[in-house]
Model the fold of this input.
Amino acid sequence: MAAVEGGGEGGSAAFRLGMSLAEMAESLGSSEQALRLILSILMGYPFALFQRYFLFQKEIYLIHLYNTLTGVSVAYFNFGPQCCHAFLCVFIQFLILRLMGRTVTAVATTFIFQMIYLMAGYYFTATEHYDIKWTMPHCVLTLKLIGLALDYYDGRKEVEVLTPEQQQFAIRGVPTLLEVYGFSFFYGAFMVGPQFSMAQYQNLVKGELTDVPGQRPNSFVPALKRLVMGLFFLVVYTILAPYISDEYLVSDDYVEQPFWFRCLYILIWGKVMLYKYVTCWLVTEGVCILTGLGYNGKDEKGRAKWDACANMKIWLFETTPFFTGTIASFNTNTNAWVARYIYKRLKFLGNKLLSQAISLLFLAIWHGLHCGYFVCFQMEFLIVIVERQLTSLVRDSPALSKLSSITILRPLFYVIQQFNHWLFMGYSLVPFCLFTWEKWLKVYQSVYFSGHLLFFTLLFAMPFLRKALVPRKEKLKKAE
Done:
């Protein structure tokens, strides 16, 4: 109150705005911070329209300045003075690039400093619930700055030694401080992503990301489609979320329900819970498309593609009966970042499975310090291994292959696969969303650790199943 009184009329107006947002959030059954987040990503559309119509192919420093000021204003709107964490880390990253240059030392220093700063943020702000605080956009920023250091390092190498992907993202020039700030605080991706490279950002500010060279991109309709789709999932989540809550999962009433009900609840809860992420990513993707950042060249028929910043493949997400399909359709931009900067750079290990395990471990640490993240990604790793082995078994076994090819049974198999898929997807997400071991352990005990028992049993039984169901000649043929 003292701060408000000291602020005079301006402070009173800010206080009334805060109260109105709190009241609005309460009427919507949401938190004020969640409402601020939604408003922030929606504010990207007027910001993008201004940049599109008044800054397209203007002086580059003005665009950097605009992106910096709008991004900082969004950060301050959500987190107040705590936005200084992002401002500080970007400045230190600029110093690392300038003082250490294109060296392994610069990459290692970036990785260590940015990850330790993020981990410290998690440690000092941790609660037993998911809170929207400054560490949420900071985890997005951390990946962006690590990627910047690696792309800057690749810029020292000869083109011939780089992969085509590295050639696309390598930075040959030396970014200015304002350029690094504009890249880091770009309003369309600061809060929840998506990830994009400095090379993409440089093309954006130069006005090169357009389907009509020299003119503004024809991206209004594609952006509007993503916005409408995002708002659709927002409505779905808003309607269903009050009835499918995290709190009920850890309640005594849930534990007292029949086993089939507990499993079905986890299935529906897991699906609904993901829609809040789907909403944010679709809306922010629309902002990126509107500015031109989403431009990804043209297809074989000469039609413009606007999926450079896509974080969701909606049709695949809603229809795939496979865990690997969901992984390939959900948070695709972050997955691509991990593949580009972690997984593929572990090629020297000579072991794909080990590289995948290390990549998932990095993702778990990056998400936070709660043990639930590690349990979730361990479960994902296990399920993906078993699913691939089962797919291979069905393909190699004449009996199973023949059974799966019966047309009349395919709808039944699809329904069974979908039920199994979303049941154990929800099962894997329980520790991810409930964080602390007391909570997720209670839920797992209520369903008798069925996911762990099933998939570990299948993992150890697979060699015996192959021996029984795959003829020897098929095994020899595969070995050849």
Summary: The chain has a mean pLDDT of 92. The chain is about 70% helix and 0% strand. The CA atoms of residues 45 and 287 lie 6 Å apart. The radius of gyration is 24 Å.
